[in-house]
Specification:
The protein has helices at about 15-30, 75-85, 95-105, 130-145, 155-165, 190-195, 215-230, 245-255, 275-280, 295-300, 310-315, 330-340, 345-360, 365-380; strands at about 1-5, 35-40, 50-55, 55-60, 65-70, 85-90, 110-115, 150-155, 170-175, 200-205, 235-240, 260-265, 280-285, 305-310, 325. With about 375 residues, it is an alpha/beta fold. The protein folds into two domains: about 1-175 and about 365-380, 3-Layer(aba) Sandwich (Rossmann fold); about 180-360, Rossmann fold. Helix 1 packs across helix 14 and helix 7 (about 215-230) packs across helix 12 (about 330-340).
Length: about 375
């Protein structure tokens, strides 16, 4: 099958959506299908993979280096006509999404759309009045969802969110994939030495973009409270990643007196993330905006129990008390939950084993096969399909 993927973000941007798209592409290629990806250009970056095509792009704002595609390119129009896709998969309802829809209609092939992101929660990145941005967002999502031939989302709670937008059509829940083979061999001890962590230290970890939507100020405040509750424990909090909130978080860490108990690694190569996770004893997630965070699945694949704020992304993945703990958005409750696992090594290890078992259902080959079945079904429903 020939598959064209349209996305507003791709490598070298590091995000759960980008990683999920790259993994699906990998899974399709491994099964012998032809795949091209159409994404915005990223200044200074050269693709190492074949079949990646770039639209001209400009950065979202001067402060945020996130390329926004200019959705017009005669060269790429020729590429898509020559490729003759049998299905088009769009991962965003804006910018390249409408172009993907128009192209699918012009070629007479189905458009599959995956809703990944609670876009309203990111209105602060757009230099327009938030209420206007949120109204426009809902309106655009409704129109795009109704126009697509098939719609998926990685999480049950987000399917319910779309129903709240007034969308009544069927939404299929298909999870983001994870390549479990990446976690077969990790270098956790090496990372601990690199970060200057002693063997007896208890390491709490977060991996991801340091953005306001990750609610990391809450995490730092809960960690400060945790240190007050258990001054005898040798605790470290490691934030793996970079982003626009890093300076503010460093300042907050100083205000809270965290000192060298708080470690910022900066951006790390994606292939090293499993080793950074393996270096930790516990994974923390405090975001309330996630849909189906891939990094949560990666932490579980690394055998880490998770303490997470009770919100959509975590609730759709974790079973409270089995492979992690789900906690209200309260600093004291969050710190207490973390402390309960740090003081019970046997329970912590049991949860880590359960997390590893849970994540098996998200294996790349399994999820890729489910998407391919959906593509075939969407093709069979198109007028004139044989």
């Amino acid at each position: 099958m020939r598959i064209a993927i349209y996305t507003n973000a791709y490598k070298p941007i590091v995000s759960g959506v980008v990683n999920a798209i790259a993994l699906l592409r990998q899974g399709f290629l491994a099964r012998g299908h032809e795949v091209i990806v159409l994404a915005p250009d990223y200044y200074g970056y050269r693709d190492q993979e074949e079949g990646i095509y770039r639209f001209p792009a400009v950065d979202l704002t001067r402060k945020v280096r996130f390329p926004v595609a200019i959705p017009w390119s005669p060269r790429l129009s020729r590429v898509i006509r020559t490729f003759r896709p049998e299905v088009i998969h769009a991962h965003h309802p804006f910018v390249l999404g409408p172009l993907a829809l128009r192209t699918a209609r012009h070629l007479g092939v189905p458009l599959v759309y995956t809703f990944h992101t609670q876009y309203e929660q990111y209105a602060h990145y757009v230099p327009l009045p938030p209420r206007l941005v949120k109204w426009f967002t809902r309106h655009r999502i409704r129109r795009f969802v109704e126009a697509a031939d098939a719609v998926t989302t990685p999480a049950v709670s987000i399917r319910d969110l779309l129903a709240g937008y007034g969308i009544r059509r069927e939404i299929l829940v298909l999870p983001n994939p994870i390549d479990l083979s990446r976690f077969a061999r990790t270098e956790g001890p090496s990372v601990r030495r690199q970060l200057g962590l002693d063997e007896e230290e208890l390491v709490l970890s977060f991996v991801g973009r340091l953005g306001i939507e990750k609610n990391l100020g809450f995490m730092l405040e809960a960690f400060a409270l945790l240190r007050e509750m258990a001054p005898e424990l040798p605790l470290r909090l490691v934030l793996v990643g970079a982003g626009p909130e890093e300076t503010r978080l460093r300042e907050l860490g100083e205000e809270l007196g965290l000192g060298d108990r708080l470690i910022f690694t900066g951006s790390v190569p994606y292939q090293t993330v499993p080793s950074y996770l393996a270096a930790a004893d516990l994974f923390l997630m405090t975001s309330v905006t996630e849909v189906k965070p891939l990094v949560l699945l990666e932490a579980m694949a690394a055998g880490l129990p998770v303490v997470a704020v009770r919100a959509a992304g975590a609730m759709d993945t974790l079973t409270d008390g089995l492979d992690g703990l789900l906690v209200p958005l309260d600093r004291g409750a969050f710190a207490q939950a973390v402390l309960s696992l740090l003081r019970d090594e046997e329970r912590r290890r049991a949860m880590g084993r359960a997390a590893r078992a849970t994540v098996e259902r998200y294996a790349l080959d399994r999820v890729a096969a489910e998407f391919l079945r959906l593509y075939e079904e969407a093709r069979s429903r198109r007028p004139g399909a044989g």
